[in-house]
């Protein structure tokens, strides 16, 4: 085999709109952007499977049912690129289930039975002794469909949908948001697989919402980003999001209205990682300055909402001085 250890997956750069077909060399190919764990699946000549994250760490122990399905459905000496996902009972992608697996330890076998996951393959890097990475996407896609085109719809390993029709892609962009599909990934039909390079494009569906400023990184006089909250049904302020770095004008505007948090501010001095974006335990606790929860702002966010919180950083849009914190939707209601 040409690939015996995990490779750095090819990546996508963010763009603001869905490109027209002629914008890509050879034409654009559009795929749904699944909300899951990126994983390279290596099946060696003997049929043994290695699932590896984009950081090239093992997923085998966390997702044993996916390993078993890959071993059953994918021929030996094959390497796939794809996404581990969990569809909840209502058909919506459940990223929280993947997080639970990541930290479950001894509970992983029980969760594998209670919350089984799937592997959605969108590329093939090697099979049958051929290194496919230098070949154009259209050829790799034909090989992938040959490998997985006949698997039953309920199989735990499936090929991701792909279309060359931009109208169909835009329909996916709008219609699949309710299932937790974040947007689209757009690829060059003539493009080779370039490890670690951001040569694909991604378009995320975004909408605006409101939050209450409960803290800032940096200082209150020079805020760098905002920690946003919403009140739950019991009147407790709950963290829902963290913004990307604020533009200079917004820092000046917000510094003039933010007041120090009172002694009974409900949030701790440091926020655990995962409370305002990212995986739990994936980075050190967030150091920030608490502010009085009285200022409402509007932000732009993608569709990745889990347990009432936006998982990815949101973008500050504007201050909403005309709104009272009681006007903001409650915790658990994204919009």
TrEMBL record:
CDD domains associated with the record: OBF_DNA_ligase_LigC
Catalytic activity of the protein: ATP + (deoxyribonucleotide)n-3'-hydroxyl + 5'-phospho-(deoxyribonucleotide)m = (deoxyribonucleotide)n+m + AMP + diphosphate
Record's keyword terms, sorted: Ligase
InterPro entries noted in UniProt: ATP-dep_DNA_ligase, DNA_ligase_ATP-dep_cent, NA-bd_OB-fold, OBF_LigC-like
Gene3D superfamilies: DNA ligase/mRNA capping enzyme (3.30.470.30), Nucleic acid-binding proteins (2.40.50.140)
Pfam families, alphabetized: DNA_ligase_A_M
A GO term for molecular function: ligase activity
Domain named ATP-dependent DNA ligase family profile: residues: 119-236
UniProt key word Ligase: yes
SUPFAM superfamilies linked: DNA ligase/mRNA capping enzyme, catalytic domain
Family: Belongs to the ATP-dependent DNA ligase family.
Protein name according to UniProt: ATP-dependent DNA ligase
Protein's organism: Actinomadura sediminis
